[in-house]
Amino acid sequence: MKFGGSSVADADKIRAAAARALAHRKAGRQVVMVVSAMGDTTDHLIDLARQISADPPKREMDQLLATGEQVTISLMAMALEAMGQRAISFTAGQIGMITDDVHTKARIHSIDVRRIHQQLDAGKIVIVAGFQGVTADGDLTTLGRGGSNVTLVAVAAALKAAECENYTDVDGIYTADPRIVPNARKIDRISYEEMLELASLGANVLHNRAVEFAKKYNVPIHVRSSLNTNKGTLIVAETESMERIVVSGAALKEKLFRVSLRKVPDRPGVAARIFHQLATGNIVVDDIIQTIDSDGTASVSFTVDTGDVTDTRRVVEGLCRKLSCQAVYQENLAKVSVVGVGMRVHTGVAERMFAALAQAGINIQNITTSEIKISCLIDRAQGREALRVVHDAFELGAKPSDRKAPAPARKTPRRQ
Amino acid sequence: MKFGGSSVADADKIRAAAARALAHRKAGRQVVMVVSAMGDTTDHLIDLARQISADPPKREMDQLLATGEQVTISLMAMALEAMGQRAISFTAGQIGMITDDVHTKARIHSIDVRRIHQQLDAGKIVIVAGFQGVTADGDLTTLGRGGSNVTLVAVAAALKAAECENYTDVDGIYTADPRIVPNARKIDRISYEEMLELASLGANVLHNRAVEFAKKYNVPIHVRSSLNTNKGTLIVAETESMERIVVSGAALKEKLFRVSLRKVPDRPGVAARIFHQLATGNIVVDDIIQTIDSDGTASVSFTVDTGDVTDTRRVVEGLCRKLSCQAVYQENLAKVSVVGVGMRVHTGVAERMFAALAQAGINIQNITTSEIKISCLIDRAQGREALRVVHDAFELGAKPSDRKAPAPARKTPRRQ
């Protein structure tokens, strides 16, 4: 069971989370909880760091941020003990949650579950600090945005858990962000693949690394609200019936920053060099477009999250000096996308999306697609409007069974 | 260099502490900093725990409290890096600061200084989290009140440091607490033995375990203010000249709680059993008095810090059932004491103290002495008055050289 920051924001919420865990325990199950930092603790810590340094060393940032979850785990153990349930809290170091040493964005290598099993077998509820890990040298790391969900799935996979519940402040995964799209609907079941696309496209509920982990180890995740006992959304392996739904959800990524490199020498290996440098700087690159200009040089564009602007500019400026190219930055972009495994077997999805955007007067700056998604890069100011337009175009606010019949299936055989 | 909570209470104070460390580093010294939790962080964390549980498990309390120092170490490293000085922070676990598993009052067993030396030799300033340790199993422990000073001395001893500076919000050790005794004077030099007595008698500046450690490894501690560059108080091994001063300081312990066990069977082993049980409960017992009553049973009294009341009552009630004795509790007591290695060679010290208290109408409930201190247990309401009276009786507000000549030396030879 994982409880996010808003679900453990104060003493009462911690007690409520503890009570949910206790109910499972009393039903005879062994329970491991993964918890995030309380409420806005992480933001408060980041603010403290900024008061000290504009560009704090990442190792020290991790050392600082890891305290947030450590506070919650100990308080959660206290809450359970106060209810008469034996409990024990563990930091990442205490259960050998070993990661690489890429501070602020570390990846989990291994978990030593012996100590967890020991304590579960002794009848205790075990509480694990989300978001954090340790390097083989014992330095603290953090797993990046949504890292507690990664911890949840990694622990569930390592323990071969029967169930994996992700408690949050929303009722589940929606067809679009309900804060932007008022008639968005909760999705009952969604495949890992769709969730992966939605997560990487800006749906904030689950981090894509968490879903990748879940898919790899086939851990079904139940995303549900900590405020009620409603069923939420089950994220599971794809089933055939899922393909009947053309589009499962729409997503908006609002904080995109585009870098265009112009006058790039058009010779083999240059693109590789550019993206190698960016990867070395641990910058996650979104869409990439390369074109050849009339003067025979290449233009290479890519988008990154605005959070990576500082790192990106540093890398790009180094590249421009070495390659004698010019960089142009465009900050105010957004990306609207639709996702659905049904796209594999239905036609006309792209046309329907482009037509809806055009009718709303929204200009598409570029298009990227995968087997199960279509994305359009647009002006940030029109992002929210675009999400509502696309959501309506596919009738995502209606029950899947009430939506208009999809276009006829392709003649080509379905891929297996 | 150790900086207490008030010396790292906000970003500016952290920068000021960093600047002091940097000055040492620039003078060519290797510097290790030990830091406490910022300002009232620890109180805030304790308050959080109390919102969750009236009696939280001590292991979880340690897991919680250790976060306070972890925040400070990372911010201090950031502050130094922002000044262009390479720095690295270490939690107790990261430098193998192994303790026993007596949570909330752990004792240090060993420190693995290799990682510290490595980083110092690489030119970095090393910042160590005070107050905390880890068990051999990796569970976090804390070292009890004043634990960061214990960390300071333990690290200094392990590194065979040339100097050991304890920065705090006062100018040094005073002849009495200046908040209670307005004419209290700063002491220039004091012996470990005197400091030990003063610390265990209620002088809050340094914890007695820190001084014991310093004495054992002969680490001179310079207690000084983080707000100015004045010389503070040097705590050093005793020298002969120190004996010229009859009394070095006076102290008041205000929060004492006395337990009197009545009708205790007067047979061998009973007292041992009582204090074994208290020790097992990790209760620090202050003065002990045993008397035989007219009915042939014994009365055993002892004082404890009021912080240990809950634990003490639990142990005492168990004992009363087993030994069929009765417990009487008296809460409102204080202890006023004078300390000085000069007592060994001067007479009339006790008489002077008792006369001064009698003249002020302060009743002495009982007296305990050691070779270099005299203590009187009195009513708590008269505690502060008693401290002022005793401080004046020994002219502690005047320079040692201006005080009245001490009574003639004893005829007996001085002990070596």
Describe it for me?
Two copies of one chain form a homodimer. Chain A has 416 residues and is of the alpha/beta class. Among the domains of chain A are: 2-169, Acetylglutamate kinase-like (Carbamate kinase), CATH 3.40.1160.10; 258-328, Alpha-Beta Plaits. In chain A, 34% of the residues lie in helices and 24% in strands. Chain A contains eleven helices and 18 strands. Chain A has helices at residues 11-26, 41-52, 58-82, 114-121, 147-159, 192-200, 208-216, 270-280, 309-323, 349-359, 383-393; strands spanning 2-3, 32-35, 87-90, 98-99, 108-110, 125-129, 132-134, 140-142, 165-168, 189-191, 221-225, 233-236, 249-264, 285-292, 298-305, 326-339, 366-370, 373-379. In chain A, strands 3-6-2-1-9-11-12-10 form an eight-stranded mixed sheet, sandwiched between helices. In chain A, strands 14-15-13-16-18-17 form a six-stranded antiparallel sheet. In chain A, strand 17 (366-370) and strand 18 (373-379) form a beta hairpin. In chain A, helix 2 runs antiparallel to helix 3, helix 5 runs parallel beside helix 7 (208-216) and helix 10 packs across helix 11. Chain A is globular and about 75 Å long. The two termini of chain A are 34 Å apart. Residues 410-416 of chain A have low confidence and may be disordered. Chain A binds chain B through residues 11, 14-15, 45, 48-49, 51-54, 56-57, 59-61, 63-64, 66-67, 70-71, 73-75, 77-79, 81-82, 88-89, 91, 93-94, 138-140, and chain B through 11, 14-15, 45, 48-49, 51-54, 56-57, 59-61, 63-64, 66-67, 70-71, 73-75, 77-79, 81-82, 88-89, 91, 93-94, 138-140.
